[in-house]
Design a protein that fits this description.
The chain has 14 helices and 18 strands. It is an alpha/beta fold. It has 2 domains: 4-155, NAD(P)-binding Rossmann-like Domain (Rossmann fold); 188-424 and 451-489, Dihydrodipicolinate Reductase, domain 2 (2-Layer Sandwich), CATH 3.30.360. The longest helix has 26 residues, at 232-257. The chain binds 6-O-phosphono-beta-D-glucopyranose (BG6).
């Protein structure tokens, strides 16, 4: 989000407006932007779906969604009255081109009433199967033509592999120009994630040591305690590698490994990230096990609650081969990072919900202290915490007070809550504002998504061709399968327990 910029009049057209995504994330985010005074005075939320719901019914539905999902809870009455006055509903059948002509008419009529040409955001909060027909119909109705003012927002999954991504993406790119396309990866809207760039490039002290001379390896962990909840059928087709690694974790890696941008804009920042993706060493199809590990959770206990095995979850095949855990060992083949391993891991049904990036520095080159001092009892690490804490911790060795020479690991800590004392905006708030402002820095460009798919394809293919013989291979409530430990142990490393999740 850019500072102190005002948005122009905006028509926000929400397809799939009665769905879960709109209810849980999109509308609560818009409402918070409104509360913070970030929405323009001329703002329209056009809820589009097939239903005959009245505007009052829709507003009531959103009121409940905000109450249950907004970081601020139930909407204050006055603010709600003003916000709900901006909501309108249009009934539309995706298969009916005439309905899109009517939509165009409605939007143009509002432009006339506002006496301006408003920014138009078409947000597809629909199942991915509708991305193509909606996009084509928007194009046919002339609704994509204004390259400056019109934007299309799509959510993942964009395809299930490289080929299907290209197919969907070709349709998007046939109708819209790349600069109009906003592909969401919600991790990129998180404050702590965006702060990686601020930390690295707004301070002179990190860059000199941010390379293979000083960094031993990098560990990126995104662990969840949740299982697949009601998303069994989606997850069965997806698995952890597609759901989390291909997008979120690779984006985190890019932010850690990228070169400094020349200017902080969408082209340059994304260009530098693509350079990292292109530098990632391809995973050899015949040696996938040396670079990737997969797991699936068995029944277990998480914080005193019994968790059923993945294979017993609703809408999951009792013999499912889908991975609920994935780990990768990657190398960025360039001058800065040659031979520094980047270990990525993510999974469901794990010990704790914790997301962090741990930069592990090399040991001191010469041990001047006696062995009894306990040097290297803990490696020096810089930990970027994204969840549940939000902050940065430097872990280093210090001398214990006293006459004996004893060294002990200590922490130097920056906490968002303590430093800023504000309620941090949700990722969707930041991202929706960026869409309305036309700033695509934290959205995925075609070449980024392609490169990410290319990287994971050998693993997806190998895993599909060789069903895991040992599934389920980790107990719910643990840190994942043994094969993931072996992946890093083969380099003499270990995952280390995340800083705030001592089990
Ligand atoms: C989504 C995945 O993209 O990210 C989910 O589809 C996952 O499976 C979620 O639970 C995690 O996001 P967050 O913001 O809760 O870490």
């Amino acid at each position: 989000m850019q500072a102190a910029q005002c948005l122009s009049a905006t028509q926000f057209v929400l397809f799939g407006s009665s769905g879960d995504l709109s209810w849980r994330l999109v509308v609560p985010a818009l409402f918070n932007l409104f509360l913070d005074g970030h929405l323009p005075t001329r703002f329209l939320l056009l809820a589009v779906d097939r239903s005959d719901k009245s505007e009052d019914e829709i507003a009531l539905h959103y009121h409940q969604g905000i109450t249950e999902n907004s970081r601020r809870g139930a909407p204050p009455e006055d603010a709600w009255q003003s916000f709900s006055g901006m909501i309108r509903h249009v009934k539309l059948n995706v298969a009916d081109q005439e309905d899109f002509q009517k939509l165009a008419l409605t939007l143009n009529t509002i432009d006339t009433a506002w006496d301006c040409k408003a920014e138009r955001v078409f947000y597809l909060a629909t199942p991915p199967s509708l991305f193509e027909p909606i996009t084509l119909s928007l194009g046919a109705a002339g609704l994509a033509q204004d390259r400056e003012r019109v934007r299309l927002v799509v959510e993942k999954p964009l395809g299930n592999d490289l080929e299907s991504f290209r197919k969907i993406n070709d349709v998007l790119c046939r109708v819209f120009e790349e600069r109009q396309l906003f592909r969401i990866d919600h991790f990129l809207g998180k404050e702590t994630v965006q702060n990686i760039l601020a930390m690295r490039f707004a301070n002179p002290i990190f860059e000199p040591i941010w390379n293979r001379r000083y960094v031993d390896h990098v560990v990126i962990t995104v662990a969840e305690t949740l299982g697949v909840e009601k998303r069994g059928s989606y997850y069965e087709q997806t698995g952890a590698l597609r759901d989390m690694v291909q997008n979120h974790l690779l984006q985190l890696l890019c932010l850690v490994a990228m070169e400094p941008p020349v200017v902080y804009d969408a082209d340059d920042v994304r260009g530098k990230k693509v350079d990292v993706l292109h530098a990632l060493r391809p995973i050899p199809p015949d040696a996938v096990d040396k670079f990737a590990a997969r797991g699936q959770y068995a029944e277990g206990w998480i914080r005193g609650e019994k968790r059923m095995a993945y294979r017993n979850e609703p809408n999951v095949d009792p013999r499912s081969n889908t991975e609920t855990y994935a780990a990768l060992k990657l190398y960025v083949d360039n001058w800065r990072w040659q031979d520094v391993p980047f270990y990525l891991r993510t999974g469901k049904g794990l010990t704790a919900k914790v997301s962090e990036i741990s930069i592990r520095f090399r040991d001191v080159p010469h041990r001047a202290f006696p062995a009894s001092a306990g040097l290297n009892a803990q490696p020096t690490r810089l930990v970027i915490q994204m969840h549940p804490e939000q902050g940065i911790v430097l872990k280093f060795m210090a001398k214990e007070p006293g006459s004996q020479l004893r060294l002990r690991p200590v922490d130097m800590r920056f906490s968002y809550n303590e430093a800023f004392q504000i309620d941090i905006p949700a990722a969707y708030e930041t991202l929706l504002w960026d869409v309305m402002a036309g700033d695509a820095t934290f959205f995925m460009r075609t070449d980024q998504v392609e490169a990410a798919w290319k990287l994971v394809m050998p693993v997806l293919d190998a895993w599909a061709a060789n069903p895991a013989a040992d599934f389920p291979n980790y107990v719910a409530g643990s840190w994942g399968p043994e094969s993931a430990d072996l992946l890093v142990a083969s380099d003499g490393n270990s995952w280390l327990t995340p800083t705030l999740a001592k089990s």
